[in-house]
């Protein structure tokens, strides 16, 4: 293992470990000792990295409040407060979201279904723009305080960054700001197709975040809501068992995919 201080490659593994069980090393060049987490984002944490990852997944994946997560891990022998869970979410949720966003870049289909839904933040309604392709896979999402032309343009600009290429067709609910935003950001060659809510499959897909944030009784701040929604969408898309809409996936396959993808995500998380 290379030294995180001087990057010297000839290091010696020591027999002792840290209180959390991480292996320690000694550098012959700068004469310093270090462990497996030294120099990483998880240094100085008082719990193992895999526990932090599991806390984050419980927070993003399941209908659990901050206090519910803290109580759940108390049963496993790890004692921390709900504010610690909040701090870990604030610190590491953007890391997971960015890793997954980079991983799926350029994999979207050529037809986008776009819509916006309401999210309550500190007693006020905010607008969450979302887009999915013809197979039901996430294109992008963005939380904005207002539903106007600037918000629509900002959403398409962000979606174009992750998609890398503009779609051939964009299906919306006919909001007045969409035609101009599509032509100015995605290009005039992109076909804008307004339709009814019944014809847009993304209308039903809003239930994901709705079901997740209802037990929280809304968000307390816009920045935390924006951070949570972005990470929630990326984790939900990554763990989605279907590759196409209305595809049948058996329970055994679902569970196998869930375990495999969660293990791969943990490896990415710990290597950051």
Describe the strand arrangement of the main beta sheet, using strand numbers: 6-5-4-7-8
What CATH calls the topology of the domain at 111-238 is Nucleotidyltransferase, domain 5
Q: What structural category arises from helix and sheet content?
A: alpha/beta
**What's the assembly state of these chains?**
single chain
Q: Report the CATH superfamily of the domain at 111-238.
A: Ribonuclease H-like superfamily/Ribonuclease H
- How many DSSP-defined strands? 8
**Overall outline:** elongated
Element order: H for helix, E for strand: EEEHHHEEEHEHEHHHH
Number of helices: 9
- Which segments are poorly predicted (pLDDT under 50) over 5 or more consecutive residues? none
Radius of gyration: 22 Å
Helix content: 40-55%
Question: What gap, in angstroms, lies between the N and C termini?
Answer: 16 Å
What can be said about the biggest beta sheet? 5 strands, mixed
Topology:
Layout: E1 11-17, E2 23-27, E3 33-35, H1 49-61, H2 66-74, H3 82-103, E4 111-121, E5 124-133, E6 138-144, H4 149-163, E7 169-172, H5 178-186, E8 191-194, H6 202-205, H7 207-213, H8 222-238, H9 251-271
Parallel strand pairs: 4-7, 7-8
Antiparallel strand pairs: 1-2, 2-3, 4-5, 5-6
Mind explaining what this structure looks like?
- 43% of the residues lie in helices and 19% in strands.
- With 272 residues, the protein is α/β, with parallel strands linked by helices.
- Among the domains are: 1-39, no CATH class; 111-238, Ribonuclease H-like superfamily/Ribonuclease H (Nucleotidyltransferase, domain 5, 2-Layer Sandwich), CATH 3.30.420.
- The two termini are 16 Å apart.
